[in-house]
Design a protein that fits this description.
Blueprint lengths: L6 H9 L6 H13 L8 H14 L9 E7 L15 H12 L3 H9 L1 E7 L17 H12 L8 E7 L4 H12 L3 H4 L8 H18 L6 H8 L2 H15 L4 E3 L2 H6 L1 H6 L7 E3 L8 H8 L15 H19 L3 H4 L6
Parallel strand pairs: 1-2, 1-3, 3-4, 4-5
Helix pairs in contact: 2-3, 3-15, 5-15, 6-10, 6-11, 7-9
The chain binds nicotinate mononucleotide (NCN) and 5,6-dimethylbenzimidazole.
């Protein structure tokens, strides 16, 4: 199991990222050329199959073990009235996840994913980022490692999601810190806030950036100052996946913002990731452009929980099924293109 012993170990891992197996990628690409269809006619399904082959290091990748994890945590900045819901909802939704009644439970069941629910110190909200760092270094490392622990070696595809009232505020701050732009550009309506709450949110992000930006010397420091426990956990899980050449399906705005500091440091970081969808949250579309990822789905979702990622799993399954099961031109005695 991957664990980051200290800041240096985390930062060193980010500098030395494994690449996909090029022989498997080439073998999968060659097989795509043999299947009974005009070259390229399955569009992104073909790219998905070769992407999965490279990361799973086999010519014909499989999806027998899809694992999802939902990390939940609370945020000090929520006390400023930046969400449409009270902070108690985080713990109440965790109880709902445990009972199997939330959207992600249903979607994980329907796409055949195993789901882990990981509450992170719900009774200890982070520091309010507008006036102090969200986490101490020890707390941030603990959250990174709680995330890394879900990327278990036998997983063929990992997705991570989150639940945390107020967390679109730190997500906006992380995005601005990584890729520039002002607070208003990255702040959206989250759970459905009114104009007054949106103004408070923009002000909180402005203050957080003014306070912390000069001190964000590395990716861990940025996550520690501007992030939160579930956010650091997602970053830890996605990095631990990369270290094991495990492909990852990214969910919405917060899941993508979690890796923004890692991508700012190493632009190659998202090579093992597919963006499942583009959320309705302001900022997600531009964030995906910075991550250089084209989302698979546009469904107007703004739920989080890993819901968009779970919805994309059947698409990956279909890509791998066509790749693995279609007849070749030779097998079906179909003439090849001239
Ligand atoms: O995934 C997204 O793009 C997304 C967009 C908006 C809201 N959310 C969810 O809503 C919560 C954060 O919204 P807010 O307004 O409390 O900051 C948190 O629990 C997220 O899972 C998620
Ligand atoms: C009810 C509810 C469910 C959620 N799931 C993810 N974020 C959420 C926010 C709220 C408010």
């Amino acid at each position: 199991m991957i664990a980051f012993a200290d800041r240096a170990a985390f930062l060193a891992a980010l500098e030395d990222l494994p690449e996909p197996c090029s022989a498997s990628t080439m073998a999968a690409r060659a097989r795509q050329g043999e299947l009974t269809k005009p070259a390229g006619s399955l569009g992104r399904l073909e790219e998905i199959a070769t992407f999965m082959a490279g990361w799973q290091q086999v010519r014909t990748p499989r999806l027998d073990r899809v694992r999802g994890a939902v990390f939940a945590a609370n945020h000090g900045v929520a006390a400023r009235g930046v969400s449409a819901f009270p902070a108690e909802v985080t713990a109440q939704m965790v109880a709902n996840f445990m009972a199997g009644g939330a959207a992600i439970n249903v979607l994980a069941r329907s796409c055949g994913a195993e789901l882990a629910i990981v509450p992170l110190d719900l009774d200890q909200p982070t520091g309010d980022i507008a006036r102090e760092p969200a986490l101490t270094e020890v707390e941030c490392l603990a959250a990174l490692n709680a995330g890394a622990a879900v990327a278990t070696a036998d997983t063929q595809l990992l997705f991570v999601g989150e639940m945390g009232i107020g967390n679109t505020t730190p997500a906006a701050a992380l995005s601005a810190a990584a890729f520039g732009g002002d607070a208003a550009q990255w702040c959206g309506r989250g759970t459905g806030i009114d104009n007054a709450a949106l103004s408070r949110k923009i002000e909180a992000v402005d203050q957080a950036l003014a306070l912390h930006q000069g001190h964000c010397a590395d990716a861990l420091e940025t996550l520690r100052r501007l992030g939160g426990r579930e956010i650091a956990a997602m970053a830890g899980a996605i990095l631990a996946a990369r270290l094991q050449r495990m492909p990852v399906l990214l969910d919405g705005f917060i899941a993508c913002a979690a890796i923004a500091p890692l991508v700012a440091r190493n632009p190659q970081f998202t090579s093992h990731c597919l963006a499942a969808h583009c959320s309705a949250e302001t900022g997600h579309a531009q964030l995906l452009e910075h991550l250089k990822l084209e989302p698979l789905l546009h469904l107007g979702l703004r739920l989080g929980e890993g819901s968009g990622a779970a919805l994309a799993v059947p698409l990956i399954r279909a890509a791998l099924a066509t790749h693995g099961e279609m007849a070749t031109f030779d097998q079906a005695a179909v003439a090849k293109s001239r």
